[in-house]
Design brief:
The two termini are 12 Å apart. The chain is 31% helix and 22% strand.
């Protein structure tokens, strides 16, 4: 089958077009003929060698397409079904998404809503599952709870703010790094007077703006979709008995100081911290945890069908090939992508 193969860890020039053995579904698996794939920040981190694995390797964590074949003990899907899928990394694999065909356990697959194109569907699984874990499973946001979101215009953030609006978080306060991001957040339903344009502001300035927007109070929930200084800000801002959730791991983050110090912003407010690493239950827990993904993905699929959620902004940069995959990685590494990069599979 056709695939975009990473021949060595390092730069994006290490991708090449090539042939790869076509997979066959094992028991419990679904084989999908890809119609579109998307590219995520975790892909370029894996390309750099940060997530282990062995080269040559096929990266890619999202796909949408048509069921080609199903393995034994699969009764949820049939050949011809239009589907979307999250592709975890099993063992040394890279997800295997940049390919004409991919096999994945059925729990990570959902039927494509009929109101979505394949390109839109391919943009959904990883970011929406991450957002759902952050705002529903972990921070358990309830109606009329105040929420602060750092990084609402990215792939995960754009899903999260829509979910938070559905949960009726109020007020919902979101950062924007540019006027363009602010306009996008307004398109997602965020009130203009609840958007914090932080360019040129100190963390103290942003802190004061958020508290003012929340009627002088600290937010009950703070969501870090950026990391670094924004993670620190989320910990400072969270209310007493509040919840902080972060999807951004990083070396040198002073988590220990926040928890062990009696003067730290988490300990002194008896607040809780929740980390989100979407693949962790797959990597460490195994099949016993697959059902969590199936339940979450079905909920997301139904929200999309009911138009509670809609796909974020898409950048369809061209068909899946090594040149375009390399370009997608470069764009993501520059850090200014709004929404998701998607590539049709021709």
């Amino acid at each position: 089958m056709r695939a975009v193969i990473l021949k060595a860890f390092g730069g994006s020039e290490n991708f090449e077009d090539g042939e790869w053995p076509e997979p066959s579904p094992a028991s419990g698996e679904v084989k999908i003929r890809a119609k579109a794939v998307s590219v995520n920040p975790t892909d370029y981190k894996a390309r750099l060698g940060g997530n282990e694995g062995a080269v040559p390797i096929i990266l890619g964590r999202d796909t949408a397409g048509i069921v080609e074949e199903v393995g034994e003990n699969v009764d949820r899907f049939f050949p011809g079904d239009e589907v979307m899928a999250y592709l975890p990394r099993f063992g040394d694999s890279g997800g295997n998404g940049y390919a004409e065909f991919v096999c994945v356990p059925h729990e990570f697959v959902a039927k494509k809503p009929s109101n979505l194109t394949f390109e839109e569907a391919a943009s959904i699984p990883l970011v929406s599952l991450t957002a759902y874990e952050a705002v529903s499973i972990k921070s358990k946001v309830e109606k009329n709870e105040s929420v602060f979101v750092a990084g609402g215009s990215g792939g995960v953030g754009s899903m999260a703010v829509q979910m938070l609006r559905f949960f009726q978080a109020d007020p919902l306060i979101v950062t924007a790094g540019s006027d363009e991001s602010a306009v996008y957040l307004e398109e997602l339903g965020i009130e203009p007077d609840k958007i914090v344009l932080y360019s040129g502001l100190s963390l103290d300035d942003v802190y004061e703006k958020v508290v003012s927007m929340n009627n002088g109070k600290l937010p009950r929930v703070t969501c870090d979709f950026v990391g670094k200084d924004m993670k620190k800000l989320c910990m400072r801002l969270v209310d007493f008995l509040g919840r902080v959730v972060s999807i951004a791991p990083e070396e040198g983050a002073p988590i220990d100081n926040f928890f062990s110090s009696k003067t730290g912003p988490m300990y002194t407010k008896s607040a809780s911290f929740h980390s989100v690493f979407l693949r962790s239950p797959v990597r460490g827990g195994g099949p016993d945890y697959y059902g969590v993904y199936m339940k979450s993905l079905e909920t997301i699929r139904n929200w999309l069908a009911d138009e509670v959620l809609r796909p974020g902004k898409l950048d369809i940069i061209g068909p899946m090939n090594s040149k375009n995959i390399s370009h997608a990685h470069t764009l993501l590494e520059d850090g200014h992508v709004k929404g998701k990069i998607v590539l049709p599979v021709e």
